[in-house]
Design brief:
Elements: H1 7-16, H2 26-37, H3 44-58, E1 63-75, E2 78-86, E3 92-100, H4 102-116, E4 125-135, E5 139-148, H5 149-169, E6 187-192, H6 197-211, E7 216-221, H7 229-248, E8 254-258, H8 273-280, E9 286-289, H9 298-302, E10 305-307, H10 310-391, H11 398-447, H12 450-455, E11 460-463, E12 480-485, E13 488-493
């Protein structure tokens, strides 16, 4: 088996540089080569050496290549890449190995990290300056000469902008922001990396607040850097909500997502669409404090409220509770003042009504007594007048008239006595009716006393605008009301509104 004359390749190469392109017939040249090699058997090493030579001569110039890092490892200061290109469907259509040798690695990686604030990781798209390389033993690879950090930054920016546009188009960007701010913060679900410095700062103030029983914090942990970070955070959010609902049969008042300070490049791991969509769709306000001041992450965009640091998040909770206490104390003072005013006015009105009824009753009694006396005097005078007329009759008719007078006098006397008894009975009956009316008016006044109504279980109800309520039409579910009873007041939140037809 004759060994091919590989030096002939050099000859061909040197001849190539001098030949006339216009007169060159590639097809005839290939046919000539094919004829020479058709019956030649080469050793693998010789054939691969020829391939190596061809690659070196053909691709000896460095070029810029865009690729995605599928995997990355290092050994002895050398860095070994698995590079790939994907189509629009995410299918790999090309792949090869890449090597960043030790004598270049330090310079290239340091420049990249300083410019981007992040380390090279898998799934990052990069622009590489490469030279083709082929080794008979290790095969084809790309020798990496340099990495352009500006391209990676631009790619991340393009991904961020595309993510914002998608969230906005799907109605998720402002979904959580549209939730009303919590009235009271009793339970807080906290998602954070375990044992992080930022979490320690947060818990220092959170534990003080919890010791007063003003607020309770429920912690669930996840990793906030690395490619697996978004998945772990999503898992922590889902698990935290399910656990809280199972224990309390309701949602927490606020969800808090916090991360302390760290490398700027770590923020890129939080720019995940699935994570952002999950945060946006939460049924409770989400407050985030990612531990940065200049750079934004996608969680800042979709959250209900964004803070620079975890410490500012807990400060926001403290300020919210302090403001609530001040408002509540103001409501209580206003209710107490108004209630005292109402009770004073009611007492004065009751006193005036009682005095008026008493005066009217006394006047009526005096009037009926005077009228009865007048009737009695008139009857008595009339009888005496008749008696005098009878006495003045003639003597001749005295006997007859006397007898008639006696009869008339007897009848008149009976009539007078009967009328007197009747008048006295009617006067006494009238006085009894008047007395009953007086007692009735007194009972009405006592029943209308607001203090008596409160003692019987009734209550005054006012809304947040300090207006007394007398109908369920003025109340909505979730409204804040204040209830005044006979021995004090309390605040409440309307759980449900039932009309008469509902009951």
């Amino acid at each position: 088996m004759p060994k091919p004359d590989l030096s002939r390749l050099d000859t061909l190469s040197s001849q190539d540089s001098d030949f006339d392109v216009d007169s060159f017939d590639a097809e005839d040249f290939n046919d000539s080569i094919d004829n020479e090699l058709e019956n030649t058997v080469l050793r693998l090493s010789d054939y691969l050496a020829a391939v190596e030579l061809v690659i070196k001569e053909t691709f000896r110039h460095s070029v810029w290549v865009k690729a995605e890092i599928r995997n990355l490892s290092s050994k002895g200061g050398h860095y070994y890449f698995e590079l790939a290109e994907k189509d629009d469907d995410g299918k790999v259509i090309a792949s090869c190995r890449g090597n960043l040798w030790r004598f270049k690695a330090s310079r290239v990686l340091t420049k990249f990290e300083r410019a981007t604030g992040m380390k090279l990781e898998r799934d990052v798209t990069v622009l590489l300056n490469v030279t083709a390389s082929f080794h008979p033993l290790y095969g084809f690879s790309l020798a990496i000469n340099d990495i352009d950090p500006s391209y990676t930054l631009g790619d991340l920016a393009r991904q961020y902008a595309a993510m914002l546009e998608r969230l906005s188009g799907e109605g998720l960007l402002n979904l959580n922001k549209q939730l009303p701010a919590p009235f009271d913060i009793e339970h807080v679900l906290v998602i954070a990396p375990e044992k992080a410095a930022g979490l320690g700062d947060f818990r220092a103030d959170a534990d003080k607040l919890e010791s007063t029983n003003a607020c309770h914090f429920h912690y669930h942990y996840a990793t906030f850097q690395g490619n697996h970070a978004p998945k772990e955070i999503r898992h922590a959010i889902t698990k935290g909500m399910l656990t809280f609902r199972k224990q309390y049969e309701r949602d927490p008042d606020v969800m808090v997502i916090i991360r302390g300070g760290g490398a700027v490049g770590d923020l890129a791991y939080l720019n995940d669409y699935e994570l952002a969509a999950l945060v946006a769709e939460q049924p409770v306000p989400v407050w985030v404090g990612i531990g940065h001041e200049r750079d934004s992450v996608i969680l800042d965009e979709v959250a209900h409220t964004s803070f620079d640091t975890p410490s500012k998040v807990i400060a926001g909770i403290v300020n919210h509770l302090a403001s609530l206490m001040q408002r509540t104390q103001g409501y209580a003072d206003a209710i107490q003042h108004l209630s005292q005013q109402q009770l004073t006015q009611a007492a004065m009105a009751t006193e005036r009504q009682f005095s008026a009824i008493q005066s009217s009753s006394t006047h009526n009694l005096q009037y009926w007594k005077h009228l009865s006396d007048r009737h009695f005097t008139s009857i008595e005078q009339h009888a005496k007048f008749q008696l005098r007329e009878v006495s003045m009759t003639t003597e001749s008719n005295m006997q007859r008239i006397r007898q008639m007078s006696y009869n008339q006098l007897a009848r008149t006397t009976d009539s007078i006595e009967s009328l007197h008894r009747s008048t006295k009975y009617n006067s006494q009956k009238l006085l009894s009716e008047v007395a009953k009316q007086v007692r009735y008016y007194q009972q009405v006044v006592l029943i209308q006393n607001p203090a008596r109504l409160l003692d019987q279980g009734y209550a005054f109800v006012k809304n947040a605008e300090d207006t007394y309520l007398n109908s369920v039409e003025s109340i909505d579910k979730g409204d804040f009301v204040t209830v005044a009873m006979s021995d004090g007041r309390f605040k409440a939140v309307v759980y449900d509104v039932l009309h008469d037809q509902d009951s």
